[in-house]
Automatic annotation (TrEMBL):
Chain segments annotated as transmembrane: 12-35, 67-85, 105-132, 152-172, 179-197, 209-231, 252-271, 283-302, 323-342, 381-401, 413-435, 447-470, 491-516, 528-551, 563-584, 613-636
Localization per Swiss-Prot or TrEMBL: Cell membrane
Keywords, in A-Z order: Cell membrane, Membrane, Transmembrane, Transmembrane helix
Name this polypeptide is given: Bifunctional copper resistance protein CopD/cytochrome c oxidase assembly protein
InterPro entries: Caa3_assmbl_CtaG-rel, CopC/D, Cu-R_CopD_dom
Topology with respect to the bilayer: Multi-pass membrane protein
Record-annotated Copper resistance protein D domain positions: 245-341
């Protein structure tokens, strides 16, 4: 059979698989909407009815948007990571190029992103119609659409999706490099997040946990679903490199499955604290059905890893192709059920919700004491996951080095975990509970994450550990994690951002910009904004101390006198910031601190003056710690230089090439020659010297 006939038959199989998956998604979506009651007409006095078109059109367009997003991510993932790169030019490491199949998936991603943008635009129209209670026709012909897009959080989120998806669609048509494909993948990943973060998660009883949970859930589902769909398509089309592609996807899918399971479990608990609600509420029954489908997908993954992947390696692809096609249909059905679940209102929280709880996710804590700062722990899902991942990955790298007989300094490991411990101390304890209420406690959290934690993390040398622990790509010219990390270190972006002047400006100026503009209050009112703010503190500090302490490889290294100068020039700016806070005549973020004003506290302005004093005095602590680290680094660097010069001198002497071949030996020879000349001159004068 000719190759064209094979490809034609493969295209037909792909079309049939797509039809079956779409039918499964629609069937489960319809069943979920009917059983959940979300398409039943509800007559509420005083509110209009958007009509049957909106009741059905909104979930259908949302499902098409979710599937389009997953397929776009899957196509970009296949181009950037799943398919190996072709050999580099001239044998240069990391200079591989995209294969023809990878470029084809990039072009397919352009079309898929266009469909994603169109579905997001339709979802936007239906959302406005649903919120206003007006038929779609009136929304399209009137001025409501343009008026409400900016005022509705869901409208703003969907507009961001449309814009980002259009950018991906346009750039994917001309992209041909691995780095650009990876950048488009990152952009598509960002576009996934706005819609789910403005749904039920933002209004859940414990919205801080729910927001993080749903973000992780969506971020893991899209590459899992889209990646499997693209791998199955690749198999049906009988393209090359299928075993490599399937094996890489299988490793990634295992992690995605774990993240989806944990985040889904957290999301269910945050909305259904009573297990009985799983069976006696519409939302709970749909969630239970999703759990069953999730378990079925786990069985598919286990079967793939134990049966079909070995068969695929043995050049028997049919078992993998058949099972992958069925799994794609089950995944599509699961996504249809997820959309129906999103359209079903969760049970109302028991008890009366106070205004403070609506803002911060929990009731007003009792009066602040040192003991309560240490004992009233507040679980933050995002930073708990961050610490667990950073700690686990670092330990895995150390263990890999030990197993192959390489050493890793114990001090670096201790420093890394000391940094992680400081993150836990200010994001999971009573500090995190009181930080949204008291500016002074928030400033403690800021100072630790921005000026203390990064010192220990940077001294832990995570990049050096990764470069030593990660294995090179198995295929020459391909890019694995180690090659991508090396490329990032040598990129133009890193060279600009890691410039001492740029890193210092980010470290200093961003603090003034955040607190003395409206950004601070906006970040405090939105949990996602609060995460972004605290994460910025951590990243900006890590960038600055990376440049200052310089343990890991960097685009440029400052000499030690330059590092000391940079330290003493930068740290006073935080003192100036603290003085500026202590001299405020009006409180920052007045609206926020008025809304969460504790009955046992003083005025917001007095508390912010206390926060300024903390910022003014805290700078001495990191300065002292950095000076200690720099002193040790400088001393040990001199010792290494001395040992290097000694070894060089020994090698030159052993080679018999004479002292002139070694700088230190030549210098010593000159000194010896001068001493000998002085001795001869002194002997020649002898007794003629006047006493």
């Amino acid at each position: 059979m000719s190759k064209a006939a094979v490809r034609s038959g493969g295209g037909t199989a792909v079309a049939w698989a797509a039809v079956i998956a779409a039918a499964a998604a629609v069937a489960v979506l319809v069943a979920g909407l009917v059983l959940g009651g979300s398409v039943t007409e509800k007559v509420i006095p005083g509110l209009g009815d958007a009509g049957v078109v909106t009741r059905w059109g909104l979930p259908v367009s949302r499902m098409v948007m979710d599937l389009g997003a997953a397929l776009t991510v899957g196509a970009l993932l296949a181009a950037a990571a799943l398919l190996p790169l072709e050999g580099g030019r001239g044998g240069r490491q990391g200079a591989g190029t995209l294969s023809a199949d990878a470029v084809g998936y990039l072009r397919a991603a352009s079309w898929l992103a266009s469909a994603w943008a169109a579905a997001a635009a339709a979802t936007l129209v239906f959302t406005v119609a649903d919120v206003l209670g007006q038929p779609v026709g009136e929304v399209l012909t009137g001025s409501e659409l343009s008026s409400y897009v900016g005022s509705l959080p869901q409208g703003t989120a969907l507009m961001l999706v449309v814009l980002l998806a259009v950018v991906v669609a346009l750039l994917a048509r001309t992209t041909t490099t691995p780095a650009a494909a990876f950048g488009l993948l990152a952009m598509a990943g960002v576009a996934l997040l706005p819609p789910p973060l403005t749904g039920h998660s933002a209004s859940a009883a414990n919205h801080s946990v729910a927001v993080t949970g749903v973000a992780l859930h969506v971020a893991a589902i899209a590459p899992w679903v889209g990646g499997l769909a693209v791998v199955a398509t690749h198999a049906l089309l009988r393209r090359d490199k299928l075993p490599v592609m399937a094996e890489r996807f299988s490793r990634m899918a295992l992690w995605c499955y774990a993240v989806v399971g944990v985040s889904g479990f957290v999301n269910v608990i945050s909305r259904l604290p009573d297990p009985a609600e799983l069976v006696n509420t519409d939302y709970g029954r749909l969630a239970l059905g999703k759990i069953v489908l999730f378990a079925a997908l786990g069985w598919f993954g286990w079967w793939h890893r134990t049966r079909t992947l070995p068969a695929l390696a043995g050049r028997r692809p049919w078992a993998f192709t058949r099972l992958a096609g069925v799994e794609v249909a089950v995944m599509a059905a699961t996504m249809g059920l997820a959309v129906a679940l999103a359209r079903t209102a969760p049970p109302a929280p028991a008890g009366e919700e106070t205004p403070v709880k609506a803002l911060i996710g929990y009731d007003m804590p009792p009066a602040l004491t040192p003991a309560r700062l240490a004992t009233l722990w507040q679980f933050d899902f995002f930073f708990a996951v961050l610490v667990a991942v950073l700690g686990g990955v670092y330990l895995a790298g150390v263990v890999r080095l030990r197993r192959r007989g390489d050493s890793w300094p114990l001090g670096r490991t201790v420093s890394w975990f000391a940094g992680l411990l400081t993150i836990v101390a200010v994001t999971e304890t009573g500090v995190a509970k009181y930080a949204p209420i008291l500016f002074s406690v928030h400033m403690v959290q800021h100072m630790v994450l921005n000026m203390l934690t990064p010192i220990f993390l940077v001294v832990g040398a995570p990049v050096t550990l990764a470069l030593r622990a990660l294995k090179p790509a198995a295929v020459r010219g391909d890019r694995g994690p180690r090659e991508w990390l090396t490329a990032a270190l040598h990129s133009r972006f890193t060279a600009i951002v890691a410039h001492p002047a740029v890193a210092t400006i980010i470290f200093v100026a961003s603090t003034f910009v955040l607190y003395f503009t409206s950004l601070f209050e906006s970040a405090m009112r939105n949990h996602l904004g609060h995460i972004a703010m605290t994460l910025h503190f951590l990243l900006a500090g890590s960038l600055f101390f990376w440049v200052l302490l310089g343990v890991d490889p960097a685009p440029r290294r400052l000499p030690y006198p330059g590092r000391l100068l940079l330290l003493f020039v930068t740290m006073p700016f935080h003192a100036f910031f603290g003085i500026a806070l202590m001299n405020l005549s009006q409180p920052l973020a007045r609206g926020w601190y008025t809304a969460v004003d504790p009955p046992w506290g003083g005025t917001a302005l007095a508390d912010q003056h206390t926060g300024g004093a903390i910022a003014w005095g805290f700078g001495e602590i990191p300065t002292f710690i950095v000076l200690i680290f720099l002193a040790f680094q400088w001393y040990f660097d001199d010792q290494r230089q001395a040992r290097r010069m000694d070894r060089k001198a020994d090698r030159a002497e052993a080679a018999g090439g004479g002292p002139e071949e070694d700088e230190l030996a030549a210098y010593n020879a000159r000194l010896a020659k001068l001493a000998e000349r002085d001795r001869l001159a002194k002997d020649g004068d002898g007794g003629t010297t006047t006493p």
